[in-house]
Amino acid sequence: MEQANHFKLGLFVLVAALALGALLLLIGGNQLGRNTVLLESYFDESVQGIDVGSKVKFRGVVVGEVTALGFSYERYQQNLAPQDRKQYVMIQAKVNNAMFANTPVAKQQLASEIRRGLRVKLTPQGLTGTAYLEIDYLNPASNPPIPVSWTPDNIYIPSARSTVQQILGGAQDLLGRMERLPLEQTVDNLNRLLSTTNQKLDKMPLEQITQRTDRILAELEKVPVRSIASDTAAVMADLRQSSTRLNTILADPALASAPADIAAAARRTRQLLDKPELESAIQRLDSTLARLDRLLGSREAELGATLDDLRTASIQLKGLTEQLNHYPGSLLANPPPVYQPPK
User: 187-223 as b/e, with b when 16 or more CB fall inside 10 Å?
Assistant: First the structure.
């Protein structure tokens, strides 16, 4: 009886656990199916290292996994001849992120992000040879989308060349350029240059040049470098003293105010010259000089006679003065007669 009860209890617990697990799977599956979308991209290179189940990361965060690998011509461009179809590798992935939602608003936002440089590229994962898809922002100018002439069935993000392919492509370009270089001609030119250089060096009088160099060095050793240095130091000291005096002169307040005083004097002179009274005074002076010139011209003869009379009067006055010096009394009476000594 107890064993039957234990069996029923265990069966009940097992059925309850299975029901709870089914409920959780149903809820999780509905939620996952509602947010998961299919993403596809095309690569014009080898996708070695990518398999179904490889991770899809958006800026380092896992957002999905690869679900299918194939070629674009298997689904698109079926109406074209095989040689006219694009040989792109098509990768489909299942992603779960709000940016990649299958709604009109999300599609518009995704198109804007693609214009900003959102790209998908292959990224190696360690040294194992495996890789994953990395969705990140790159320079749109250096990573333009590959040409696609059809409308993708799912959400589409352009691809960019992987880092490994860029390195290999750069190496191949470098090797191609090196192959195009005329290495043999370059080596021949270098050999001729070395030969010509050796011939020129053989012709140079190296011994004479060495002797001249020794003589020049000997002459340079005779130069009184210390005295020149001391003289130079003295000259520099004089220059510093002169500079100090010049700075003292320039710092004088009188010198600093001189331009202002000159400017003020110039303004006052300008104001004086601009006054109308000065012009009228000059005109009156001109008219006065003109009248004086006319007066002197008309009385020139009279002025000559008057000057002669003044000269005569001056001579007479001089004689009278000399007589008074000798005979002061002659001003009151006649002078005494001249003394005559007896004979």
Answer: eeeeeeeeeeeeeeeeeeeeeeeeeeeeeeeeeeeee
